[in-house]
Amino acid sequence: MAEASPYAADALIPHTVEPHPVTGIPNGKLGIWLFLASEVMLFGALFSTYVVIRTTAPHWPPEGGLSSEILNVPLATVNTAVLITSSITMVLSWASLKMQNLPRFRLWLGSTIALAFVFLVIKYFEYTHKFELGHYPSHDNFYAVYFTLTGLHGVHVIGGIIVNTFLLTAGSRMWATEPERWCSWPCSVSRRSRSG
Amino acid sequence: MTAPTTHGATTHAGGNEHSHDQDHGHEHAHGHELPFWRKYIFSVDHKMIGLQYGLTALVFLLVGFSLMMLMRWQLAYPGRPLGWVGKLLGENAMPGGVMAPEFYNQLGAMHGTIMVFMGIVPLAVGAFGNYVVPLQIGAPDMAFPRLNMASYWAFLPGGLLMIYSFFMPGGAAQSGWTNYPPLSVLTQVPGQTMWLFAMVLLITSSLLGSINFIVTIVQLRAKGLGFWRLPFFVHAQFVTSFLLLLAFPPLEAAAVLQLMDRLAGTSFFLPTGLVVSGEQLKVAGGGSPLLWQHLFWFLAHPEVYVLILPAMGIVAEVIANNTRKPLWGYRLLVYSVIFLGFMSFVVWAHHMFMTGMGTTMSTFFQTTTMIISIPSVIILTCFLMSLYGGAIRFTTPMLFATAFLPMFAIGGLTGLPLGLTASDIYLHDTFYVIGHFHYVVAPGTIFALFAGIYYWYPKATGKQMDPTLGKIHFWLSFLCMNGIFMPMFFQGMAGLSRRLYDPTIYAHGRAIQSLNVVISWSAWGLFLAQLPFIWNFFSSLARARAVENPWSATTLEWAAPSPPTHGNFPTPPVVYREPYEYSVPGQTSDFHPQFAGEA
Amino acid sequence: MDETKYGFWLPVDVSSHGAQIDNLMAVVHWFMLLLFVGWGIFFVYCLVKFRARPGHVATYNPVKAVFTKYIEAAVVVVEVFLLFGLSTPVWFKYKGRPASEKDAVVVQLVAEQFAWNFHYAGKDGKFGKSSTATMSGDNPLGLDPDDPAGKDDITTVNQFHVPVNKDVIVELSSKDVIHSFNIPVLRVKQDAIPGTRIPVWFHATQPGHFELACAQLCGLGHYRMRADVLIDTPEDYAKWEKENAPTPSEEQPPTAQQPAK
Q: Which residues contact B238 (CB under 8 A, 6 or more apart)?
């Protein structure tokens, strides 16, 4: 038998689509919130590490000078702008789904993915510049913290690209098979005609 | 445990025949069988995943136990060759049949790691949580079935890689299960890196699982099942999941940082000016070895409650069922576990009193440690009071559950002198500590897990385990467990440090060496005591079918067929009352299930 | 070494603060025993009295138990007493500094895999400069050979001589991994953490020959990282100091004294 939807197994499970009457949200949203709580703890531990190492160091950065002279402030500022913009485009893509506009959803989600790539490319230039100067994570704890924290963030960005690319391509087939779930309840259900 | 279901083919995910109005758990199953690999290997059914977790964890428990039995030979008879076993393990581990100190340290580190992260947590949370929680709350499955499968498939490779590290050059991790740097960073064996890598997988598995449990318990409770009607086991799993969710990420971060130290040459945990074997160590320095201990114990203290709370949950279920009366102080129990969960995040540094912390910090942490003992006392009191006025049936699960109470009491009480800084000066890192936490997790948690296996075996298989073999298993285990762990308190009081390859180097070690012989023989006896269990576990599959609700229990899991079909309940269950309505006055039978409507 | 000083319970105590620790230990254990026996009696009574048997039914309504509240309150009171009455005072004393630091004997102790390097200031009471940067196999303490203050310093390996009835401050550090300075008979334990220098002090009350054990897993030789603790009478200590003082003709800092065994 052909498996029309790989998600049929979930159809058994209450509140996969329609929100729980008490919590007011479907399962997936609660799950993501909890995941974010665990991420807060993960990065909380990493930033605590940074604070401990920095405050116990006789000088920061250990090799002298100022952090702003070591890191490329203009590039990092551009990257911050890129990140913030990508969260705006992400929300716009979500809003487009709520408004049942699949083409616009694709546009905004595609922009989000593109911005993620822009972020990584800028990061690539920052990293290679450090490597050219011979500054590897082992150089001192300034670089250790810098590479580890931004590297883990980079891994998260790559994860986001993978998930969003799935939603943009294969995943968006759910628009046809399970529209309420796809646009995240509640949204009006007269969407068949707009099927993309 | 993968008995063929007597309810015909169970099926799921097969295709678009599912729709909202369909009656999924119907006795007359859907027309096709899932392929073997979807049903038994990459299953998304919480019951199959629970069984996978359970069987895998039991195997790992046996492996971890075997490592300990090897260590006990060296401790009982230091330097004596170990015959054919020595030959089997090869010249690197046991040159001339005598255990090498490195190998002893590997066994010690891996025994702890395997028992905690690959044995008890997966069995208590992965197996019992997965199998029982959705059934007890009347849900058709976990909230995210594929995420559930993913957590098992992160756990299994993590566990296998951990075991594999024994076969790598230089052997497995050998810096204790706590893996303290700088030792763990400076130990140049790839097994040490593999430990971190496998831990990242095991942590990820628990994280995914904890999200799933919380969402399932919040969102998928059956109609009428308010929070004050949940079985205590579900409350315990709920708190446990929050501990896993919030405590594991810092260890994941710490593992990543230590991986960086090992692989990229960073110095997160390496201070400036290390000199190893007379050579200046060529690293940048500037890190802090204590930072690891803080990150590690921030996880590992809540982890202690991850080990004990599900066990308390199982004990509560079994006690209520076998005393034939409601639990005494049900709400007090729930408040106590929630309080325990909160407090477990602010006691971690009591593992670090000897690291040179100041008096303010140590006073804070010994005070929180004393505070956390109060809810434990309340929980124990509630369980004891639950026995009062009951009509106690001494079934096999009840034997294990009743034995849990004094064993956990010993484990908990011996925590007091360790939590007080002054007595900890003397007892820290001695065998007293080993005795203390083993009383909590071995005759404590593991007994509760055995109780759970005997109690829910009929649910998972439709068969009862043999009660005579069960009683043999219980009494031998009870005897041997105490033979192992009780002498450790005396060794600790005598001042014997833990993790010593040869305790007879020291005068105070020679004084208590006779106890080591007692402990070792008890340990080997404990192994023999498990043989009736293993036989019982498999041979009971061939027994005649048990009745539907063999324990006359009240909770929701007994509303489903045994074993439950896919989707668990023929019709979505409705809950009418509190979880433990036993011996209700005016009722004809002595139990009034949650799911039985008013007659 | 006197083997009869050790047994199945606390070994002999030869320190000034140890009695308080032993006292706390005794009170805690009596308290634990009392609670356990009390619980145990109730537990066994319930198991026998309320066993299932024909004609016996369970009571549905929960018993009103006031005495459990009293027990819990008593536990709280006892724990507060243990905490602030017995534990904290001795801990503050232990973590503080001796009354008169001037008269105290100061020993610098550098732990390494798998030995204890003791460094005494010698006659002039001044330590020669030492640094991790100059540590090597021949110079385990990293002593500066040009520092005049170090000319009379005494260094030993795995031999810890201290005078009886005197405050002793040990300044503890480690050059490689975490070790733990543990002398059971002195009721002293303190981790030696690389990158830090942690002082720990005690006051021995009896002479004798005891031992120091490493209490923190430090590698494959952890089990044999042992030192002899020799608590000397003032005369013996002076004699030992004199015998081990480096002769003036020596140009290099004194080579480490070999362990007894």
A: B213, B214, B217, B230
B 553-592 residues with CB below 8 A of C? 582-585, 590
Domain membership of residue A190 (yes or no) is: yes
CATH number, residue B44:
1.20.210.10
Residue B351 with chain C: CB contacts under 8 Å: none
Between the alpha carbon of residue C84 and those of residues A162, B388, C24, the distances in Å are 57, 35, 11
Looking at the fold, whether A193 and A98 belong to one and the same domain comes out as yes
For domain C101-244, which CATH number applies: 3.10.150.10, 3.30.565.10, 2.60.40.420, 2.170.150.40?
2.60.40.420
CA neighbours closer than 13 Å in the CB half-sphere of residue B458: 21
> Please, which residues have CB within 8 angstroms of residue B363's CB and are 6 or more apart in sequence?
B421, C88, C91
- List C residues 25-44 in contact with B (Cβ-Cβ < 8 A): 25, 28-29, 31-32, 35-36, 39-40, 42-43
Q: In a 3-state reduction of DSSP, which class is residue B404?
A: helix
Which of B3, B16, B225, B261 lies closest to B133 in space, CA to CA? B225
Task: Spell out which residues of chain A touch residue B253, defining contact as CB-CB under 8 Å.
Answer: 42-43, 45-46, 49
**B498 φ/ψ angles, rounded to the nearest 5 degrees:** -80, 170
Asked if the structure places residue B569 within a domain, the reply is no
Q: What is the DSSP string of A137-184?
A: TTS-HHHHHHHHHHHHHHHHHHHHHHHHHHHHTGGGGHHHH-HHHHT-
CA distance B344 to B245: 13
Determine, yes or no, domain membership for B414: yes
Give the ipTM: 0.93
Shortest Cα distance from A79 to chain B (angstroms)?
Answer: 24
pLDDT at A103: 92
* B15 reaches C (C-beta below 8 A): no
**Residue range(s) occupied by CATH 2.60.40.420 in chain C:** 101-244
Range of the domain at A184: 73-196
Q: Residue B292's domain spans which residues?
A: 36-268+286-559
A5 in a structural domain: no
Determine the distance in angstroms separating the CA of A45 from the nearest CA of chain B, rounded to an integer.
5
Q: What is the mean pLDDT of residues A124-148?
A: 94
pLDDT tens readout for residues C121-178: 988 888 988 888 888 888 888 888 888 888 889 999 999 999 999 999 999 999 999 9
Whether the per-residue pLDDT at A188 is higher than 70: the answer is no
Residue C120 CA to residue C150 CA, distance in Å, equals 10
Per-residue CA distances from B158 to B49, B127, B164, B212, B417 (Å): 16, 16, 10, 19, 36
Residue C52 pLDDT grade (very low, low, confident, very high; cuts 50, 70, 90) = very high
* CA atoms lying within 13 Å on the CB side of residue B514: 3
Question: pLDDT tens across B493-541, in order?
Answer: 999 999 999 999 999 999 999 999 999 999 999 999 999 999 999 999 9
pLDDT over 60 at C251, yes or no = no
Number of compact structural domains in chain B: 1
What is residue B574's DSSP assignment?
B
Does some domain include residue A7? no
Q: Is C257 helix (H, G, I), strand (E, B) or coil?
A: strand
Residue B218 lies in a domain: yes
CA distance C103 to chain B (A): 24
